[in-house]
């Protein structure tokens, strides 16, 4: 929490299924290993006051708070303003980086590493459903090189990810041929 604001999303409630301020929100089901899956975005009533707490901003990172699969705990995605006036549900933890200290893309890649190697799962709690928890995430130690080095690392990893995505597309095309 010294490098980012960490917040759990808003809980769904039947009273919020209808109302005058129906707004889109993302949930854990919308986070994929390759980014956002926005083909099924739900809506619920968020007041303007609630939106001040739960609205998403470009650069926010969202991590899956819990999963029945330990391998899915903490799976992250970065928000780039994909949907206007969008909020998030309590199946996600929002990490809003203090950009003077940490580069959001660096943090995204660090979180992908932790989730992908099971580090988040090791520190999760619960039986059957593994919970990461906002407090546990807020107390997590993040190694931080200088901000320019973070940006350089993020750029290299972004290029590597682009190459990986092209390779995956090529393999799919070859298989279809």
Describe this structure as you would to a colleague.
This protein has 177 residues and is of the alpha+beta class. Helix content is 33%, strand content 21%. The longest helix has 30 residues, at 147-176. The chain starts with a strand and ends with a helix. The model has no long low-confidence stretch (mean pLDDT 92).
Summarize the structure.
The chain is of the alpha+beta class and 177 residues long. Helices cover 33% and strands 21% of the residues.
Mean of pLDDT: 92
> Secondary-structure element order, as H and E?
EEEEEHEEEEEHHEHH
Number of strands: 11
**Biggest sheet, open or closed, and with what strands and sense?**
4 strands, antiparallel
- Helix fraction bin: 25-40%
Contiguous low-pLDDT stretches (5 residues minimum) are: none
Task: Choose one word for the global shape.
Answer: globular
User: Whole-Å distance between the termini?
Assistant: 50 Å
Strand composition percent? 15-25%
Strand order of the largest sheet: 1-10-6-8
Counted by DSSP, the helix tally is 5
Round the Cα radius of gyration to an integer and report it. Answer: 17 Å
Class from secondary-structure proportions: alpha+beta
Oligomer: single chain
